[in-house]
Specification:
27% strand, Rossmann fold, 7-stranded mixed beta sheet, 7 helices, 25 strands, 4-stranded antiparallel beta sheet, 2 domains, Immunoglobulin-like
Length: 389
């Protein structure tokens, strides 16, 4: 008789699933057909049923076999199906951001967020390849893009240790054991403790920083304890000027509460060029970063990119530029060709202690590093130069 049908979590019929029907006086086995139908030579009544099959978890159910009503069996596919919210979370949602316009935060204070909250966007499919296009809204500026940088470093034979930003905040990164620190892609939210720890290392202790991202260190976060933070987005508009009481224009949300990140990075995010992408143009070909590239002033590079959300080149998505608060000796090396003078600016500045900062000012940079020879060579030149000095 037809006992029922079996499907997966999306109600797609499953063939060749195995069934074992049990009760005190009877045990029978069956296998589902191509339509997911389950036929078994059993009588109506109550049964314990064990079911499972390749690619799906097994389970035990108690059910009633009826001639007039097929039973709906379901199995879960092996693999990531979703995330569960931890019981210990006490935080709220990030408040007041007008995502549609990608420009405005409309509250002065924000509820905490838990560091233990689900983060489904930081997920890389098991069968994803390093040179596959980076799809979707989030992957292009989160884990999927950073993973390309790690893969590139391994391809180039550059050893690295990987730390989380939370470890950096809690002083669990032994900075003085390293010559070079790389931050990449979109490190937007930093605590002031993280910022000044890094700035002191570069300015006072000779540390070398590679900033291979865009819109970084742009907003202060405050750690309430070891698992809750507050994002101090403030009442802020990216597209309209924001002024201090003395008339000075703030350069960023971080500037409003701490200081402009341009003091450290040499560049700071601005709204021009947002959500566009383009190649860079060389402006100072005498700099060592262009060694071995064959590039001269006026040449264009960084045309290739895996960034599928905003394709067009290595300068893009969100871009940083030199500002009045950049160190006075910041050297401009190249600039993106984005609309409205919105191209990312590649810069370097050095510190009195022998430290240095090399910044590319673009979220899209890591998405180009595996497929654009010039982007790859420039990055390798910077890392190896800072390691050797």
């Amino acid at each position: 008789m037809l006992v029922g049908y079996v499907s997966n979590e999306r109600y797609v019929a499953l063939a060749d699933m195995l069934f074992e029907f049990r009760r005190a006086d009877q045990v029978a086995t069956a296998r589902s057909t191509i339509s997911g139908a389950v036929y078994a030579d059993i009588e109506p009544g109550e049964y314990e049923v064990v079911l499972g099959g390749p690619g799906h978890g097994s389970k035990i159910v108690h059910m009633e076999v009826r001639q007039d009503q097929p039973y709906q069996f379901r199995l879960l596919s092996d693999g990531l199906l979703g995330y569960m919210w931890p019981k210990c979370v006490r935080g709220g949602e990030r408040a007041g951001y007008t995502e549609k316009e990608h420009r405005t935060y409309n509250a002065e204070t924000y509820t905490p967020l838990s560091l233990e909250r689900p983060d489904p966007y930081n997920h890389i499919d098991e069968d994803e390849g390093l040179t596959d296009p980076i799809a979707g809204r989030q992957g292009c500026h989160m884990a999927a893009a950073e993973w390309r940088l790690f893969g590139w470093m391994e391809r180039q034979g550059i050893d690295y240790d990987l730390y989380g930003e939370t470890q950096f905040h809690f002083d669990q990164v032994p900075l003085d054991q390293y010559k070079v620190l790389v931050i990449s892609t979109h490190p937007e939210y930093w605590s002031k403790e993280m910022y000044f720890r890094l700035k002191h290392w570069a300015f006072e202790r000779g540390g070398r920083l590679l900033y291979l991202g865009g819109n970084g260190l742009n907003c202060e976060v405050e750690f309430l304890d070891n698992h809750r933070i507050v994002y101090h987005n403030t009442n802020w508009s990216h597209s309209e000027p924001q002024f201090a009481a003395d008339g000075r224009e703030y350069e960023s949300r971080f500037d409003r509460r701490v200081e402009s990140e341009a003091n450290l990075l040499g560049v700071v995010f601005s709204y021009s060029g947002i959500m566009t992408a383009a190649p860079y143009r060389v402006l100072d070909d005498t700099h060592w970063c262009f060694a071995g590239t064959g590039l001269k002033n006026g040449d264009v590079f960084g045309e290739k990119s895996l960034h599928q959300r905003i394709p067009g080149g290595a300068s893009g998505h969100e871009t940083d530029k030199i500002s009045p608060q950049s160190p006075t000796h910041t050297r401009l090396l190249a600039k993106g060709l984005n609309p409205d003078e919105g191209g990312a600016e590649i810069v370097e500045h050095t510190t009195a202690s022998g430290g240095a900062v090399f910044s590319v000012g673009s979220i899209c940079w890591p998405a180009s590093i595996l497929v654009d020879e010039a982007v790859s060579k420039i990055t390798e030149n910077a890392i190896r130069r800072y390691l050797a000095d």
